[in-house]
Design goal:
The chain is built from 7 helices and 10 strands. It has 248 residues and is α/β, with parallel strands linked by helices. The longest helix has 18 residues. It binds NADP nicotinamide-adenine-dinucleotide phosphate (NAP).
């Protein structure tokens, strides 16, 4: 009983921590877009589930794609408009090299090092934003997750009070830091917070808003639909400098 109580207090404290610092409104002065026509896009996390979808769908839409990958042999897509650039988000020099000539960045960065504190997402994103500023790249669309900032609790009770506190506390803490770094940047950012990801086919249908998700059950969306929605954010300003939840 005592263990259960301690766990509950810890889970509630984590929820409060993940919600702290959530931005309610964008700054009015920041809403206008200055982005020029986008033709060259850098995709980070391109060998991951969402990343592969981003690469394939960006090529379908005619973008010149640079896939930023740690291991080029793990991306088995060939296309005349695809350039594969080896690098690591934690290595600033490789990030800045990849950033040259880009018009926008899409990030589906993630990892599986759940059980100890890491800063891969936040430090990697800091490097991306710094290189963007240096190279004059403005638009940044970044996939994070429901369950952070203003969306705390919206991954459902099972994730909020069991999976996140037990399995993902360090990961979500890093994601929260990642979002805060993005929000305080000068980039034209859009944070896309999906529900639980699936590998289902693209339906082209995605529900999106600041209030997506449920406090009771876990909403889902396919990686293909997340990629589709993220690519739309390159040319739409609806969610400019905002965080938006997405589910199928
Ligand atoms: N799983 C879910 O249900 C769920 C729900 C909501 C949100 N999300 C979030 O959505 C995002 C995408 O998830 P996913 O499952 O589609 O992707 P994923 O399969 O986890 O892929 C992550 C990508 O990030 C890359 N990466 C990791 N560390 C890197 C580094 N230091 N430098 C460069 N690249 C690095 C990986 O490269 P390697 O191939 O070299 O490892 C991989 O391409 C993640 O942030 C995840 O947390 C997931």
């Amino acid at each position: 009983m005592t263990i259960l109580l301690v766990f509950l207090v810890y889970a509630i404290a984590l929820v409060i921590g993940l919600a702290r610092g959530a931005r309610r409104k964008p700054l009015a002065a920041q809403v206008a877009s200055t982005t020029r026509q986008i033709s060259q896009v850098l995709i980070v996390g391109a060998t991951g589930g969402t990343g592969r979808q981003l690469v394939a769908q960006a090529l379908e839409r005619g973008y010149e794609v640079t896939a930023f990958v740690r291991n080029p042999s793990s991306l088995k897509i060939e296309h005349p408009k695809l350039r594969i650039m080896p690098g690591d988000v934690l290595d600033y020099a490789s990030v800045e090299t990849a950033m040259r000539g880009q018009d926008a960045v899409l990030s589906a960065l993630g990892h599986k090092q759940f059980f100890y504190p890491t800063r891969i997402l936040s430090d990697g994103t800091k490097n991306l934003l710094k290189a963007m500023e240096t190279q004059g790249v403005t638009r940044f669309v970044c996939e994070t997750s429901l369950g952070i900032g203003s969306s705390v609790g919206r991954l459902g009770i099972y994730y909020t009070f069991l999976i996140i506190p037990l399995v993902l506390p360090f990961y979500f803490w890093d994601k929260r830091r990642q979002e805060q770094i993005i929000e305080s940047s000068t980039a034209e950012w859009v944070i896309v917070r999906p529900g639980l990801l699936t590998n289902a086919a693209r339906r082209g249908l995605c529900r999106h808003s600041h209030a997506i998700g449920s406090f009771l059950w876990t909403v889902r969306i396919s990686r293909a639909d997340v990629a589709d929605f993220m690519l739309k954010q390159l040319s739409e300003d609806t969610y400019l400098r905002k965080s938006v939840g997405a589910c199928g």
